[in-house]
Amino acid sequence: MVDKKKNVKVLVLITLIIAVSSGFIFKSIKDKQKDEFVYYGTVEADKINLSTEIGGKVKEIKLQEGSKVKAGELIATIDSDENSLKLQDSEIAIKSAENELGKTQDGTRAEEIKAQEALVRQAQSLVKQGEAAVKIAENNLNSAQTNFDYKKKIYDDAAALYQSGADSKYKMDAAKNELDNATNVLNNAKDSLESSRAQVSNYSAQLDSSNEKLQLLVNGATERDKNSAQYGVEKAKNSYELNKVMLDKSNIVTSTDGIIETINFKKGEYIAPGSAVATLLDDKNLWVKIYVPESVLTHIKLEKEVTLTSDFLKDKTIKGKIIYISPEAEFTPMNIVTKNDRTKLVYEVKIKILDNIDSVKTGMLLDVNLK
Question: Quick check: pTM over 0.70?
Fold first, then answer.
């Protein structure tokens, strides 16, 4: 009788163990199925470099890092003495053109003819100087092109070695950095040559205008001559407006709403054309980048809406939309996984955040549910 009771207890215990084990296995399977579609990523925002179109010393920094800004808000000012002088020259040119118009309307004197001859000689000298500047710019461009071709070959070789596994990504990135610098130098050289040629064209136009005016003075003003003098006044005014536009470029303003992430220069530092005075985060265009295995690709597609959650936003479910799926696999990024996961091939997926923009901040860790 005792043995029978003992057997019953053993049977009940075995049954209980099987039930508990089955429940645990079932729960593990459910958790695994759930976790298979949940990935983690950090909130990021598009970065916009607020660059200057002119060179000069930083005169003033108006904002600090972390400041929220609106489109068109002043970030910094560049002290450009050259553009200020050009604007002053344009004002003088207007007065001179108006004076020439008055003289054309009044008639010609011998002193005026001599004065105009001097202006012609001055314009001829400027044309020669401009042509010399073009030659220098052409030499600089040739040098920059040679340097670019050399850096491009180094980068191509480094990229090929990296792709074959024969060299490190660090060397390829270093070569890419050198190539980017060479590209900037080449672009600046092209811009310089274009500017020099434009200047020669401008000087040539001035010379032609001076010669025409001289001829008018010698021959005497006609109605057409008077009209030409009037055009000279209008041209001087247009030149003034152009120089005013260039001077206005001394003010660096924001292109969109956002947050100032970094201020890249200090007051008094020289800044070259094309340099980024500050970097702006477009906090209204937020996204999360995750990495998924190949098995998940069949369950997702572009424009698919997904849900995102955060431990710090317990009462909110954030909507997102898949806007990019990488066509190529890569090794799992080392900074977000364990050592064992680094050998796995994954695909980059980018999710744009659609709502709760004001609650989500850059750098926040979000759970992305792709199911």
Answer: no
